Amino acid sequence: MNVTPFCVLTIAGSDSGGGAGIQADLRTIRAIGGHALTAITAVTAQDTMHISEWRPVPDALIGAQIASALGGFPVAAAKTGLLPGPSAIRIVAAALAKVPTIPLVVDPVIASASGTRFLSQAGIRALREQLFPLASLVTPNWPEAAAISGLPVQSHAQAKRAAMRISAECGRPVLVKGGHAPGKTWRDCLVMPDGDALWYEGPRIVTLNTHGTGCVLSAAIASWLGRGADLAWAVKLGQSFLQRALLRGRGLHWGAGRGPAFYGKR
């Protein structure tokens, strides 16, 4: 019997250290049972400490990769990560607007944790105006939610307020991730366009290996949406996947800085 695997398209940057971006997405999608399709938007040279170089992929080539994936495979879901500027965002949005029934998770990568900035204010506006309205879910962390909403985000109450503003503007669900919060508990806030909010929380896993966690979570949620889960359950399953990866990574030593979340065999 011929069986077609469910396919998830990731549109993101390449991480030479393998901890984030396309590489993290590939591992995540495969671990959840899918076949990963890729459109690489940028190439980075990075280790566990910092990004030393990065270059955007030409817009036309980004568009061609997406067109080939959508035209040649049964894509069940898609996600975006690093998008290197307003023109690239326009190309991606135009391509994804042609397939509105495919669930889309938008991880609005503005800068790396080590401080390398990828998107200008014009890029943030392009995300808000062109890509967010297509999304099944937008997944900013606290700094990203602050940059997008224009509101301070230094507490869980402020995170919810920022999520509500972003969701009201784009008309789509928003998950503000609470990994930047202090304390022994993580709390993520999912806000729906009607203003309803759902909180997810759990004990914080103490580990240095947190590089790429946003990529892993967004890829996991997209994968579960591709498998047919509803949004709230896909978020829960994605968070559980990430927590297991963080647990498996405890005690591993990758270098002088932050290593990747780990979900291979030990």
Overall description:
Helix content is 39%, strand content 21%. The protein is an alpha/beta fold. It has a 6-stranded mixed β-sheet. A 3-stranded antiparallel β-sheet has the order 7-8-9, with helices on one face. Helix 2 packs parallel to helix 3 (86-96) and helix 7 (213-226) crosses helix 8 (231-249). The longest helix is centred in the last third of the chain and has 19 residues, at 231-249.
Keywords for this entry:
single chain; 266 residues; alpha/beta; UDP-N-acetylmuramoyl-L-alanine:D-glutamate ligase; six-stranded mixed β-sheet; three-stranded antiparallel β-sheet; 8 helices; 9 strands; globular
Q: Short description, anyone?
A:
By secondary structure, this protein is α/β, with parallel strands linked by helices.
Element string (H = helix, E = strand) = EHEEHEHEHEHHEEEHH
- The first-to-last residue Cα distance is 34 Å
Largest sheet: 6 strands, mixed
Q: Strand order within the widest sheet?
A: 3-2-1-4-5-6
What average pLDDT do the residues reach? Answer: 94
What count of helical segments does DSSP give? 8
Number of domains: 1
- The Rg value, from CA coordinates, equals 17 Å
Layout of secondary structure:
Elements: E1 7-15, H1 21-31, E2 35-46, E3 51-56, H2 59-72, E4 75-80, H3 86-96, E5 104-106, H4 121-131, E6 137-138, H5 142-149, H6 156-170, E7 174-176, E8 185-191, E9 197-203, H7 213-226, H8 231-249
Parallel strand pairs: 1-2, 1-4, 4-5, 5-6
Antiparallel strand pairs: 2-3, 7-8, 8-9
Helix pairs in contact: 1-7, 2-3, 3-4, 5-6, 7-8
